[in-house]
Amino acid sequence: MNGTSHSWPALPFAEWKDTAITLHMWTQIVGKIRLTLSPWMNHSWHVTLYVTSRGLTTSPIPHGSHTFEIQFDFIDHQLLIDKSDGARRTIPLKPQSVAEFYRIVMKTLGDLEVPVTINTTPNEIENPIPFDQDEEHHFYDREYANRFWRVLVQSDRVFKEFRSRFCGKCSPVHFFWGSFDLAVTRFSGRRAPERPGADPITKEAYSHEVISVGFWPGDGEIVKDAAFYAYAAPEPAGFKERRVRPAKAFYSTEKNEFFLMYDDVRSSDSPEKLLLDFCQSTYEAGAILGNWDRPNLERYAAGATNA
């Protein structure tokens, strides 16, 4: 991989499905380490990973009087564990089962004297296999792992530009390992109606009105390939009928979200502008219909229709 490669690479889900599933479980293991040891933050912001110039990172995790950080490096294909006393361990990223990856990571943390015990059941997937028993998922295609990260890099920088336009409460641009997506979420500042029957985590996550945009690699089923998404929660009346930009964006009644397929972005003359248009127009749809206090929430109106 070199600097001349296309910055918005092709990412057909069918071509890397097995790697995606394995990598999803690896990020869950690392994410649960951060979850277990980090102080709780609202809306589960303490559990996420962040895009770096080489991969994904936990950021510093506290452990006693020390901190340590776990980083996926998708250029040299290794997992780096750095401790604040200067110790470093490197684990190769290669075809290996989820169970083997779990054993190596946990043993390495023990050797660094930062032991941790996590819940080994994967989150947010059907028929989960405990990490320490998962010999089924063992694929790692270096090319597609790198492509996935490069898409995250491009999405991350555009989402950060979009985030800069808002001065109300807003999440970081962060990677949720449970749902395997990159997202940024804006808040109106008002509490939302409680969701009947929702689990405690979901209730807290949507305790306030939000409009969120993100990138998801797809599932080969409802959303066949990689796509950008946007939703409002609670969804205001008329949201799904709202015309958004660009014209190829569409509303999924199965997901209750707007989608813009990644291939439509990468094949455009200006991927950044197309993605920003999608972010801005879907936000405006939710903010206008939801009667958000836009003058006090938006830093400036660049790109806004002010409808």
Give the topology.
Elements: H1 13-37, E1 50-51, E2 55-57, E3 61-63, E4 66-73, E5 78-83, E6 88-92, H2 98-111, H3 142-163, E7 174-176, E8 181-191, H4 200-205, E9 208-216, E10 227-233, E11 250-252, E12 257-261, H5 262-266, H6 271-289, H7 294-297
Antiparallel strand pairs: 1-2, 2-4, 3-4, 4-5, 5-6, 7-8, 8-9, 9-10, 10-12, 11-12
What does this protein look like?
With 307 residues, this protein is of the alpha+beta class. Helix content is 31%, strand content 21%. The chain contains 7 helices and 12 strands. It has helices at residues 13-37, 98-111, 142-163, 200-205, 262-266, 271-289, 294-297, and strands at residues 50-51, 55-57, 61-63, 66-73, 78-83, 88-92, 174-176, 181-191, 208-216, 227-233, 250-252, 257-261. Strands 1, 2, 3, 4, 5 and 6 form a 6-stranded antiparallel beta sheet that branches. Strands 7-8-9-10-12-11 form a 6-stranded antiparallel beta sheet. A hairpin with a 4-residue loop joins strand 11 (250-252) and strand 12 (257-261). Helix 1 packs parallel to helix 2 (98-111) and helix 3 (142-163) packs across helix 6. The protein starts with 12 loop residues before the first helix and ends in a 10-residue tail after the last helix. 36% of the residues are buried. Mean pLDDT is 95; it is low at 1-5 and 302-307.
